[in-house]
Amino acid sequence: MSAPVLSIRNLTIDYVGATSDFHAVKNVSFDIGRGEFFGLAGESGCGKSTIAFAISRLHRPPALIRSGSQILLDGRDVLTLDDAALKQLRWREVAMVFQSAMNSLNPVLSIERQFYDVLKTHTGMSRVAARARAAELLKLVDIPADRLSAYPHQLSGGMRQRVVIAICLALNPKLLIMDEPTTALDVVVQREILERIHKLRQELGFSVLFITHDLALMVQVSDRIGIMLEGELVEVNDAQAIYRTPQHDYTRKLWASIPRLTGARIAEATP
Amino acid sequence: MTDAMTEPGPILALDNVSKVFHRAGSTVHAARAVSFALHPGRTLALVGESGSGKTTAARLIMREYRPDQGRLLFRGEPIEGSAVRDMRAYRSAVQMVFQDPFSSLNPVHTIRYHLERPMRLHQPSLKGRARDAAIAEVLSRVKLDPALILPKYPHELSGGQRQRISIARALAVNPEVIIADEPTSMLDVSVRLGILNLLNDMKRELKLAVLYITHDIATARYVAEDIMVMYAGQIVEWGETESVLGNPQHPYTRLLLSAVPDPDRRFGDTRFSDELDRIDLIRRQSALEQAEVREVGPRHFIRPMPA
Fold it and tell me: How much is the pTM?
């Protein structure tokens, strides 16, 4: 296997408090390969979003990344970059789709303008060229180009989410981070969006860090999965192995608490 | 559906209920000829995507909306135009558990207040020690320790604990019907199952009739004997849960089921793949009004999708 796109080593993040620190991420290490779809699962508060924010250096005090941590993106440690280098890194190398991404569009700007913002800032593209590129990107996510003049409120939640994904792909990033990208959407819409991402990843070759609490969905789309519990990465394995032969007690308990659509109503907890 | 389930007569039934919302330039059919019945000791699940009219059905039952057409029957009698005293009986018999345990409890009141107040209003004969005992009893039913919980405020409790309080509050008035609108969708997976088990226990031990509203079909299967699939205000398929989920006949139900995350199927390997290829068509056609009802199996019905 070629060198991984993302390599996280001994990542430790604390939320610094007045009297005591909250250890959000405890000595976590994992790799994401080129073109790989990596899932990070766990319950709310387990630290999975904190990791996502740290990768694009979007974390803010009181979050503090402890020394000894490394986040290597194509071999370069993100934690050592200055502001100018970070500006180059974001969007161009790492793009992030947030949980409430459909609300992260600016309500007073047209869709075209929001593409133009990113394209002009990072590539100095002209308005005409940006328009053509935006139309091309919208097509990738199955939205007709005539919606470029629309404002966010004129689109459905699922369409807005797809617009955000299209903007994220504008600069051909190496890594797309998706933090609960479809949690607020209906299952059919969720399926449509993830199918698209699944196909685009194969066509364009980017890697995905997919964060969700929905284990069943994660097994369907991911190549490998990491399970987090209270800041620790307790198990990392191929998606099928996480599903069929979970090793950690917590992974087994998670499966045992999920009602199933077919077969037994809940999975039998393997002893 | 009313004909199909005759034995122990329904406590509550919707009979051909319609509700239309008018907005500038457009009308939304939130309920179209909706009929269903709730029976003691049984859970009926109402599933569908957001905007399909699930919550409108709950609000019609809670009398927040009045139907434009059709009737709401309580113990076989139409509720419309009934005396104030009967309405009060209806209110104590039918209780609701809301989706969001963070906003459905009052932040300035203790848990004791949340449980005591419905008892004062609906069971005024219960006083002093007897009321304290009743409060302790509903709390132990939802598996919370009264001594620890009663003096606390909502913000001191976790999401799962708060949802247990919401259920205890509903139980505090001795209801016969519980309307639970997405009661687990804001909870973590490991907490979710506890709430579902609680709903199952209540149904069995207290012989409650439960309407379980959700978009999560797997949880519906876990709690409900019967299921209805709603789309665009219309119930497109209904029947016994295992029959509907095991042998879905309406294209929309099949679409919904093929989109539900299933760890046994990778993307590309779907249960009803042709449905995923014609999403727009199914959406468009299923939204049309369809008066025809077809029986596709024992106690299993669809409104066929117009061609």
Answer: 0.85
